[in-house]
Structure formats: C-alpha cells, structure tokens
Amino acid sequence: VHQQLDCGKLFCSCPAGTGSPDLGFSRRLHATASEMGQVDTAAAAENVRDFGYHQGDGNCLVEADEEPPRGPNPKAVKIALQVAQLLGAQPLEEMHFMRKVVVDGSNTTGFQRTALVSTGGRLEYDGGSVDIEQLCLEEDSCRRGDGNDNFLLDRLGVPLLEISTAPQLHTPEAVQAAARALGRLLRACRVRRGLGTIRQDVNVSIPEGRRVELKGFQDLGTMPQVVEDEMERQAKLAGITRSEPGPVTEVTRLLANPPTSAWSCRLPGWAGLLGTTKSPLGHPRLGRELADHVRRAGVAGLLHSDEIPAQGVSVDEAETIAAELKCGETDAFILVFEKKEVAMAALERACNRARKTGVPHEVRRVLTEGGSRYLRPMPGAARMYPETDIPPLKLTSENVELPPTLDERSAALPLGTQQAEQLVRASLDGRFYELVTMGSSPKLAARLLLHQLPELRKAGLPTPGKAALEELIEAVASGKLAKEGVDDALATLARGEVLRLESSSNADLDAFIDELLAERKDFVQQRRMEAMGPLMGAVMGEFRGRIDGALVSERLLVKLEEFLG
Ligand SMILES: [Zn+2]
C-alpha cells in the first residue's frame, strides 16, 4: 500500500498543489548500472527518450533536479514512525535514503528516493491478521499530463509511505480486507485523503504460477475480482511451454501492398495460442500479450498468423510468408511493419516473451473493464544505490507520540456507535468537540454535522460562520429555539440574515389551543380523539421552531381530553 502524507513535500518546502500545463522543461533519462554493476531489467526495458515536465505555478529547483534535495521533511519522518508504532513494527536505528532507478519519465532525476523506516509488525483485519514486512518513506512520482511522456510536477516529492505485507493472504477476500484495515489504520495519522492518495499494488501467485505485481487499482471494491482474474490468467498460462523463435526475416517483397518494410519470425508450436478478439473467454490471447511487448519498443503493434486476413495481408500472402519462414502445421508467425532497426528491437522484445514458459515474472496494469495488461518486467535488486545528497538520520532519538486510532476516537465520542463511526470516518470529530465546547448537546452537534450542514451545502447555501453557529446553539440550549426550528434557523443564518427568535411561553401555547378548540368545536365533537392529528398540524403551524413538538403534543392531549370531558 502506498499512502500519501499530508505535510507538504519530502525534500523541499513546496506545497503539494495542483499543476497546470506551462512551457515546462525536458529531460532525457537512461538506465545506469547500480552499485553492483548490473543494469536493472525493468529500467533497461525503457527506451531512452525525451520527457516533458510542467511545474504549473511552481518554480522549484529541487523538483527540476537543479538543486540537491533538502530534508527529509521532519513531519513526514514523524508520521512514518507513528505508523510504524501503530503496526507494532521495529524502527531502524538510522534511516538511509536510497535511489531506486526509474527511467519511465515519472521523475526528473531518473530515480525515486526511498528509505527503509521499520521492519516487522502485524496488521489485524476482519477475519485474520498478516505480518508486515517493511515500511518505507519515499517520494511520490509525477502525475501524467496530456500526451505521451508529459508529466506534471505537483505530485512529485509528496511523501509516501510504502507498506508491504508478508505473502500470507490466501484468498481474494483476505487481500481486500487487509487493504481496508491498513487504510483505516493509516487514517489515524496525518495522511492525504481523496482519489489517488492511497494506492494498492497486489502481488499474486498461484502454486503453478509466478509472482506478478498488479498496479492501478481504482477502488477496493474491485480487488477480489481482479485477484481472481489474475489467478485464472496464471492457471491458463501455466500449461504453455516456451517457443524458441526462428530468425527475423524481411518479407516485404512477399506482400502486394506493404505500408513500409515488413519483418517477421516464426514461433514454433504457438499456432492457435495467439488468438483474436473473437477467441472464446479463457483463451490465453498471447498475440495481444506479444503486441504489448513490441509497443514498448515504440511500434504501434504487430500482426500475427492467427488473425489473418488483417492489416491488408491476405490468406494467400500469409501462406507465402509461412512457407518462407518454414512454418510447420503447429507454428505461428508474428510480423511488424517498421524500418529495420525499430522492427528488430520490437521483435526482439516479442521473442524474449515467447521464450518464457508458463507465467512470466512481470508487472501488470489493472484494467477498469477487468483483466490486466503487461506493463514492464519485474524490477530486481539491481535498481538500488545509495543517495549521497541526504545524510543518514538517527531514528532512535525521535520522540513519537502515538495518535488515537479511528476505533479509539469513535469509542471516545458520547454518541451511539453508528453516529460516532460516521463522524470519525468523515474526520468530523474535531468539529464535534468544537460545537460541544460552544454549548451544544452531543445530539445536536452530531445532527448538525452529519445532516443539517450537509443539507445546507446541498441546497447551495454557505456554511454559517462560528459566531452564527454559536448564536444558534445558544438559542437551542436556552429553549428559545426548538429542535424543529433548527433547519429554518440555519438557512436564515446561512443567508446572512438576522435570526429572529420570538420566545413563546407555555401560556401562549395553552391560550392558542383553547382558542383553536373553541373555534373548531363541531369538528372536535364529531371526531373526538381522532381530531388530535389535524389539530396538532394547526398548532405546529403556529409554533414550529419555537416550542418543542413533544411539548405541543403533550399540552394538546391534556387540553383535548379536558375539552371532551
Ligand atoms: Zn519544491
């Protein structure tokens, strides 16, 4: 789970604002070798290319990688330690930032800074518990802007907690329940709220498959289904053996109307496995998979033998190509239209995928319509090296004050469980205590925050200020305003008008009832006790908001019984 913290940025003092497109600047990123001299596979899979960055209103040298990072932000470190303690994790003696090579353009530096804060810990969730492996404090990446390879800097450098659980969640439902519990625990601390502020990556493997990382969950509700889909996908791939591709051959001259030069190679044993959009559900669709790989080399896609006729290539032409490539009955072929250099690089990627038996070790992107698509190879340890611009930070000397959890906050409220839960979930418990301090009863405060003020906002009226609310609460507390009158009084205050409270005494009420009974004598005689309802309506019409409805009902009943003898 990745959770954004609500305390500015990690390595500079910029706010985590909103970026808007501007002229920006560009960077060219390429993979470098790590400490151990190896280049990470995921980094190597990215093409070296130009990326555009936009700062909006900002103008920060740290974000542009023109100035060394400052910090780390002490507030972020404090929150990280709070979360570690809430999880029962063991903080490290010292925190050392590392650089994790990421050259997909999502940062300006070519790496993401990350530091291990604690190890161990345990998370209780609905239906079980799971060990926590580690908690890292890292910087968030850029948001994608319009168009390919364009990025916005507003999110870059926002402190992010990365919490990884141990591989102990055995059902899709347990994965969801644990994610939910962790989200709730995090909300005890100063974390950012709203869309995209908490992101889950789920690693799924089945006994006959391999670990695959799924990124880009839209919401927790879809999580069990996505995990289920991945389990099915892995089961499907588990039975497929690798194909050793034949040599790449130019086949341009075999085609009547090639858009540009055409390059093709044979995939032994893979006929029928590539599939098309018309393939039945449960088909491995390896053609689409290979197409996702060639796209990473910058080509639009590929053509394969299962989908012909397509892209202007006829069945006859396909037979000629198959003969040229020496394809047997069970062999497939793939084809790319591109100039030689690009085509070779693209087919090389597809061939590398074809050489893998069963489930490849990779990162995939979750699709909103279900299923997932290939994103990049699984990064390995080769992508880390030390960040030398940030000195190590002693963690043992940090004094951590533990915030109350949401459960504790909810239990502390002098309200029923449901209302208390609602208030805490909406982070309104602070406001609740404010209103109670102003003299409001807990009941009134809860009703105001959960119903009456939201209703007001829905009606398009502004929320009354502190003084106005104080006046309202005072009026209710002193009995000048009955609870039925609060809605109208709020609207009056919201419009900026003066609250006019006519205090009504019980004597006024009794007098009004007497008069009413006399006036409607015949009706009352005829309907007897059933006249209560209509009479109540008439009295409330007069006293609504000034005298409590329960009191009106009580007085009316007494008077009516007297009247009827
Ligand atoms: Zn900055």
From TrEMBL:
<dbReference type="GO" id="GO:0005524">
    <property type="term" value="F:ATP binding"/>
</dbReference>
<dbReference type="InterPro" id="IPR017959">
    <property type="entry name" value="Asn/Gln-tRNA_amidoTrfase_suB/E"/>
</dbReference>
<keyword id="KW-0648">Protein biosynthesis</keyword>
<dbReference type="Pfam" id="PF02637">
    <property type="entry name" value="GatB_Yqey"/>
</dbReference>
<keyword id="KW-0547">Nucleotide-binding</keyword>
<dbReference type="InterPro" id="IPR004414">
    <property type="entry name" value="GatE"/>
</dbReference>
<feature type="domain" description="Asn/Gln amidotransferase">
    <location>
        <begin position="431"/>
        <end position="560"/>
    </location>
</feature>
<dbReference type="InterPro" id="IPR014746">
    <property type="entry name" value="Gln_synth/guanido_kin_cat_dom"/>
</dbReference>
<dbReference type="InterPro" id="IPR006075">
    <property type="entry name" value="Asn/Gln-tRNA_Trfase_suB/E_cat"/>
</dbReference>
<keyword id="KW-0067">ATP-binding</keyword>
<dbReference type="InterPro" id="IPR017958">
    <property type="entry name" value="Gln-tRNA_amidoTrfase_suB_CS"/>
</dbReference>
<dbReference type="GO" id="GO:0004812">
    <property type="term" value="F:aminoacyl-tRNA ligase activity"/>
</dbReference>
<dbReference type="GO" id="GO:0006412">
    <property type="term" value="P:translation"/>
</dbReference>
<dbReference type="Pfam" id="PF02934">
    <property type="entry name" value="GatB_N"/>
</dbReference>
<protein>
    <recommendedName>
        <fullName>Asn/Gln amidotransferase domain-containing protein</fullName>
    </recommendedName>
</protein>
<dbReference type="GO" id="GO:0005737">
    <property type="term" value="C:cytoplasm"/>
</dbReference>
<dbReference type="InterPro" id="IPR023168">
    <property type="entry name" value="GatB_Yqey_C_2"/>
</dbReference>
<keyword id="KW-0436">Ligase</keyword>
<dbReference type="GO" id="GO:0070681">
    <property type="term" value="P:glutaminyl-tRNAGln biosynthesis via transamidation"/>
</dbReference>
<dbReference type="InterPro" id="IPR004115">
    <property type="entry name" value="GAD-like_sf"/>
</dbReference>
<dbReference type="GO" id="GO:0050567">
    <property type="term" value="F:glutaminyl-tRNA synthase (glutamine-hydrolyzing) activity"/>
</dbReference>
<dbReference type="InterPro" id="IPR018027">
    <property type="entry name" value="Asn/Gln_amidotransferase"/>
</dbReference>
<dbReference type="InterPro" id="IPR003789">
    <property type="entry name" value="Asn/Gln_tRNA_amidoTrase-B-like"/>
</dbReference>
